[in-house]
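Worked example 3 (structure in, sequence out).
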């Protein structure tokens, strides 16, 4: 019998909690319940949902049932008016909220990161075991899988006639290099983003590698071992990690949070009137013998707008790269590992693009004699906010057809959080 997905949002503190509700979807009830403390984070979440309802183009029609108070966890566990939970807020207690939802037999759509310290890794293992036993879905908001250049890169690296097999690389010259640069000051859903103070606390939010590094760790698994389970204990060897601090002035902090001073909770990170945040991290590891390097960075503001993503993937036949200048969309390039095979690579890439026309009509190749550029039609370009709608569509689809969830997803959830939390642990010790 068909049943509607009925949303419950638990302690929304991050704007991602609202972005998954930016569209109305078939199979999802229009009433959503919010269980949370009655604080600024909750009010901001409600304002975003109200904004979706009030917009001129394609307004949503959400009804919100707010159940706020200090006992919101107890009420959530006791009342259960819904069957699916959205969790996107403070990172430190997130795994406990996921466990609470799973224990209540509610499906979970949880924003990254689920854990920020390796000491909590056993909790993650226990939660996923319980989810399997109770037959509920625990799903990550892995938005980078829906970026078209990442999707195409995955298709190309899986084609041995085009890419070959993965080089092993070295720690100094990895076979896969992924870099992500995010910006603190940005616009979300048409309005300037006001960040809560706790976002800057490494005790609550964690370091950059434990947070946005989740996307990069997931992409490394998604590219090197597509549709395959990766055993973190035997197939991942952490080789090194590092960190660098980012300085935020009190004036900048005020612009970002609308608070006049640094709160007491952040004073341990304040030196000579400036806040220090572990916003720059790197990690190196071997994944099934393929060397990988991740780099995550936060900057105050982009001069041209937008976060950026870069990647280099080295195969035995071709090197593929994603390059994204500031203010421009990411672009995908390929070059032959052996320059004498440039023409053969160009021919194979054109054949590959032709085979993808059903999904990506208009895909073409430009050859400058040295490097091949994949021309992506503008109609296939999507925004960061669009990716959250795509994640929600995927979650709804799996909710209605749980047996279609790939069997490797839980195993690789453990693998990606093993990478990020071990990297954060190693970076702190170094």
């Amino acid at each position: 019998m068909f049943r509607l997905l009925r949303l419950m949002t638990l302690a929304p503190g991050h704007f991602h909690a609202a972005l998954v509700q930016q569209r109305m979807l078939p199979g999802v009830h229009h009433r959503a319940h919010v269980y949370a403390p009655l604080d600024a984070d909750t009010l901001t979440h409600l304002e975003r949902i109200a904004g979706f309802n009030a917009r001129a183009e394609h307004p949503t029609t959400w009804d919100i049932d707010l159940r706020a108070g200090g006992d919101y966890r107890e009420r959530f566990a006791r009342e259960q008016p819904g069957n699916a939970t959205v969790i996107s807020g403070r990172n430190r207690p997130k795994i406990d909220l996921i466990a609470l939802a799973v224990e209540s037999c509610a499906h979970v759509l949880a924003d990254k990161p689920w854990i920020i310290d390796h000491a909590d890794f056993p909790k993650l293992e226990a939660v996923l075991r319980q989810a399997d036993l109770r037959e509920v879905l625990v799903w990550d908001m892995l938005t980078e899988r829906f970026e078209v250049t990442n999707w195409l890169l995955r298709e190309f690296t899986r084609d041995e006639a085009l890419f070959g097999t993965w080089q092993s690389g070295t720690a100094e010259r990895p076979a896969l290099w992924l870099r992500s640069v995010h910006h603190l000051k940005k616009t979300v859903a048409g309005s300037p983003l006001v960040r809560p103070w706790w976002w800057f606390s490494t005790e609550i939010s964690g370091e950059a590698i434990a947070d946005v590094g989740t996307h990069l760790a997931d992409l490394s698994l998604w590219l090197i071992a597509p549709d395959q389970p990766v055993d973190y204990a035997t197939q991942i060897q952490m080789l090194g990690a590092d960190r660098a601090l980012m300085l935020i002035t009190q004036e900048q902090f005020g612009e970002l949070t609308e608070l006049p001073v640094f709160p007491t909770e952040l004073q341990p990170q304040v030196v000579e009137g400036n806040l220090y945040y572990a916003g720059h991290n790197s990690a190196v590891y071997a994944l099934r013998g393929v060397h990988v390097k991740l780099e995550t960075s936060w900057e105050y503001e982009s001069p041209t707008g937008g976060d950026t993503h870069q990647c280099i993937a080295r195969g035995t036949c071709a090197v593929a790269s994603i390059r994204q200048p500031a203010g421009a969309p990411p672009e995908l390039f390929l070059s032959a590992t052996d320059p004498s095979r440039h023409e053969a690579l160009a021919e194979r890439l054109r054949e590959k693009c032709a085979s993808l026309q059903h999904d990506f009509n208009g895909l073409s190749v430009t050859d400058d004699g040295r490097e091949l550029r994949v021309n992506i039609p503008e109609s296939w370009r999507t925004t960061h906010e669009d990716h959250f709608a795509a994640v929600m569509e995927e979650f709804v689809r799996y909710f209605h057809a749980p047996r279609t969830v790939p069997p490797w997803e839980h195993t690789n959830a453990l693998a990606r959080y093993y990478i990020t939390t071990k990297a954060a642990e190693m970076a702190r010790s170094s």
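Notes: The first helix runs from residue 16 to 19. The chain is about 35% helix and 25% strand.
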